[in-house]
Amino acid sequence: VCCHRVCCHRVCCDRVCCDRVCCHRVCCHRVCCHRVCCHRVCCDRVCCHRVCCHRVCCHRVCCHRVCYHRVCCHRVCCDRVCCHRVCCHRVCCHRVCCHRVCCHRVCNHRVCCHRVCCHRVCCHRVCYHRVCCHRVCCDRVCCHRVCCHRVCCHRVCCHRVCCHRVCCHRVCCHRVCCHRVCCHRVCCHRVCCHRVCCHRVCCDRNTGRKLSREMGEEKTRTLFI
To answer: Which residues contact 35 (CB under 8 A, 6 or more apart)?
Structure first.
């Protein structure tokens, strides 16, 4: 079962990304983005609606490269929502709005911010339980033990939930996240992944081999040790 906030939607990809009982908040299109998933009205390839993406955003509500009003954004957030003074109330943005509205004391209760405000407000101990922040706060606050339990931040993943460019649940890998069983670079839950999505079976991008669920779990245990 997909996690309620970070999975895919019904109209998600028909074979990989989503699951019927997936959440209705974060989802992916047929070509699930390799950074973050997308929503229904997402772009064709890599974008998102209610969840931020990394470099390519949704053509409807997202900004130029990254963003959107339910998660946080990157450099060039939307000039109308995220990174404006009246930043969305549920999503923080990057440098511009973070320290003004979103990530000020009353930062968004569902998503944390990025560099600027992270270490000051948003990602201070009580990091939000929906989506964590990025670099700065990760290694000190957000992605520490008290990191959110749904989606984590960038490089320094948190304890249970984390990931670099995609979210994961319990166990994550280096660059991509997965749900319980993940591989080294190309992870998988039953649904998600970085570039090569898998269905219950992790795929090793380097070798092209398919790793069984048991092998994935073994690898996971090794990583944690």
So the answer is: 46, 53, 54, 55, 165, 166
Q: Alpha-carbon distance 209 to 219, whole Å?
A: 14
Q: Is 61 exposed, middle or buried (0-12, 13-18, 19+ CB in 10 A)?
A: buried
Q: Are 114 and 94 in contact (CB under 8 A)?
A: yes
Residues written for the chain: 225
Task: List pLDDT tens digits, range 140-164.
Answer: 233 333 333 333 333 333 322 333 3
- In angstroms, the CA 69 to CA 168 distance is 20
pLDDT at 163: 32
Distance separating alpha carbons of residues 51 and 40, to the nearest angstrom:
11
Number of domains in the chain: 1
Model confidence at 173, pLDDT cuts 50, 70, 90, reads: very low
pLDDT for residue 202: 37
63 domain-assigned: no
Q: For residue 61, is it within any domain?
A: no
